[in-house]
Amino acid sequence: MFSHKILVVEDERILASDIRNSLQKLGYSVLELTASGEEAIKKIAEDNPHLVLIDICLAGKINGTEIGDIIQNDFQIPVVYLTEYSADKQTHQKQLSEPFSYIHKPCAEKDLHFAVEMALYKHRLNQKYEAEKQRLTAIINSMGCGVVVTCADGSIQMMNPVAEALTGWRQNEAYGKDLEEVVNLIDKEMDEVIDNLATKAIQAGEVLNIPDNCNLLTKDGKIIPIGDSVAPIRDADGNIDGAVLVFQDISQRKQTEAQLLRNACHDALTALPNRVLFLDRLRQTIERSRRRNDYNFAVLFLDLDGFKGINDRFGHAIGDDFLVAIARRLELCLRSGDTVARFGGDEFAVLLEDIKDVTDATNVAKRIQEALSVPLNLNGHQIIPTASIGIALSSSHYEEPHNLLRDADIAMYHAKRQGKARYGVFSNA
Predict the structure, then answer these.
(1) Rounded to whole angstroms, how far apart are CA atoms 331 and 24?
(2) 4-aspartylphosphate: which positions carry it (predicted)?
């Protein structure tokens, strides 16, 4: 049968002997009695007892309370203090404040047995708790996301290394601080500070996602886009006693999303807006013109003259370079608020916003044709580009972007039938 080893540290020999006899009678294994703190430390290091009974008023260079602290902190061995007078409790309030942490002298066998068993039981529970705590800490620390745990009042209880790296705060610096101070979150669009998310999750009693467009302002002033969630922590009875914030740097994801969005809305060859983005901007312009009676705009539809011949004569690689060069020239002909898009092949469209009248649109068409008329030198080949341009002006009867494009396309084909390098303005006639 397993027998717990107990060390008795008591400088009153008769009392120490009585305690040893009682412990042995109860089935415990008692190490050689010792009367000083120095001897106690030596024996503990040699024999590693399961529990130490120690006189709290032990005489010597190292008193009982100092020995007790060393035993519990350095050796992680439970201690039960032997105390004789109630005055001891006032003098050593800190050491004797824990339940079952002491026993009065002289020790009745029943009381001694209860005190020892309770101390051993508490130690086993503490060991189990510490093991679970260490395992939980190891799991949290091994996560690839930042993790911050708060108390019920929103103050920080722990942070994992990733959270430290992202925020720039060390756990010992952040402990006890308000979450909002350490995990300083800014709404990118509103440019406003986001309130303590832990408090919000605790009040809501449910998992909350970190708001979109949320930036983390680090301790050293860096701005990092982050995302994930914050959740309330519930105890075994379902009561909320804190919150856990899980977050990660989503800079790469944001860049990927932006690139995907750009790819979806821009022409891969020329990097100009494509038909989808052009129609969206045209739709917004139509809505804007409905709110302002004096707001005029125009759509220009361009078709390059003789592009098929360029491809057939010089090859598709030169044809691609030709289209890219045309795109750059078109951009230079426009204001910053206007839009030029490539629809595919040799077709381009231009949206001119906030113009006075048809003259503004025709002047841009002329400017485009002048810019295109300058010869292009591509891989040793000189090419003089021209384009046919159709113009459709805004009016109250246009409800859909496609109708404007249709009429600009009709005007373009009308101009092309008149010969190269011409423009035409759409009219119902």
Answers:
(1) 98
(2) 55
